[in-house]
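Dear colleague,

Thank you for sharing your sequence with our group. We've completed the structure prediction you requested, and as agreed, I am returning the results in plain text so they can be pasted directly into your records. Please verify that the sequence below matches your submission; if there's any discrepancy, let me know and we will rerun it promptly.
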Amino acid sequence: MTVERRMRQSQTVAPFGVGAIFDLLGESFVAADVRWWGARGDALHLDRLARQLNVAGFRSAPVWSRGQASSRGLPFVRFPRVLFCPSCRAVVFWRRDWEESGEPARCGQCVRTPQLVPMRFVAVCDQGHMTDVPWRDWAHSTAREPAQKQCNSPNLYLDSAERGTGGLDSLSVRCGKCGARRSLNGISAKDSLRALAARSPEAVHCNGTQPWQRADQGEPCGRLLQVVQRGATNVYFANTASALDIPPESDYDPYGDLVLKLKSHPNFPAIVNAPDGPATPILVHAIAVEIECEDEVVWRALRDETTANAPASGDEDDILTGEWKALTAQPRDYHPRSTFIREAVPLLRPDDGSAVERRLDELVESVQLAVRLREVRALVSFSRYEPGARAVPADLGAAIDWRPGVEVFGEGVFIAFDEAAVSRWELGAAAVGELLEARRQRSLVGGRLPVATARYVMLHTFAHLLIRQLVFECGYSAASLQERIYSRTASQGDPQAGVLVYTAAGDVEGTMGGLVDQGRPGRLAPTVIRALERGAWCSTDPLCSENPGQGFGSLNLAACHGCCLLPETSCESGNRLLDRSLVVGNPGRGVTGFFEDVLADLLKDSRVLAVTTGER
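Please find the predicted structure tokens below.
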């Protein structure tokens, strides 16, 4: 039976991609792997990202349509399968054949059939598997009577004490047959299920399945299950990749629309894999007939595809390097329908700007307005329990040659900083980068983070401060703005020092134009200065500014929710590798900020203004 629920398509990569739990109006579901998609979903193409991930392409989540009987939408299954009734407190082991179209799970024992509530806890292992908590064994695990120890009744109740603290010790699972019970106190502690192994070893050790799989579809595992809250952050860690569409691929070409249809044809991968095969001419003609084009168009698309799939070398394989080159290249004209349109603008108008703004202008190499951007985001894999645990592919290792993705459009502002100024500054700030880099290498999430140079930390923190200020200036919410950091020292290759703040959403909010307008001369410089001024202090100072380490693994220094942190969806590094001291300076720690002279001039101007006002 189909269960109809709604979610935004842009959320199907993150945070509700394959393997993630999706809570909606008191119900809980988990997204099945892409094998359940079948041939559904629109094809997405971005060759640079596909080559980086070694796949043929991407597909957006299938969209459910009420008017089409064959439309099935995105496959989710109800999880946890163990629910309880808030009225009679009965624990129900839900079955899929009980589902009713458009209806939530309801209690069949109560007259008013209240909606069942998902249990608060689930069981996971560090190999990426997830299942229900063995509640029957938990209820009987502290039994003392022989009859209770031997009882295997699934007739359970979730009782709540009338008097108590309101914590987990006031909740208990009770057997309705033998009366055995155990409170939930300590259930989420590490290895809390180990004591149940004597009663039921198979219940506490992982059978290698995901919630949408049968028991016989699992892979060998046997790890001890760990109990976590259903909404805890360690239930699901998504590993995503994204890239901007840049020239020449982003340039509008009427031929390109036809190519997208050709590449989406089920026989096109066959001719790409064997372009000189004996069956290729037959398949080419069949595709041409079905798409209603000439055979030569298919042959041209085949030549382009095989050339594009040739191994690249050097910086061409680097997603960020390609984008950096596109954003810093000489200005050119763009077709109005191109998916990458940028406009070079000065930070200040000629003969305009205050002394503080002119000081800022000395540090800025160029400003680019990304009038139109296209971004493709893809889900590569996910992990559970620990960030550095085993990565589970989105196809569960089925060797499917595409990944789930989403295509979004938006706008942005790109700022490139003067390389000579950055190089001079980082000579005196290298110690901060070395400290955070040592912590990154020891961290469980270190492999997912970029190398922590002083340059990167400064640019990253500046992007956060700018986003927090732009929220007040251009009307976007903080969760709608994102960052891309372009950082590379001379020892890492061709130097890069720039940030792109952009909005890319699957709805109309991605094209309001407010962000581009905020980047024009006369607006961007005051915004940056206000961002730096706000970043110079924090409501938790001096605790924040003098903190030797904050956040997960102490991967942040002077950065907290009061001054720097953003919504998780906005930050490419999960709110890690931040230190505003590298931006605004911190004499107490002996750290020189890249924008310290700008703030010094700002303070000088404010003092002059105060004196002048006093004289009046």
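Summary note from our side: Residues 310-317, 608-616 have pLDDT under 50 and may be disordered.

Kind regards,
the structure core
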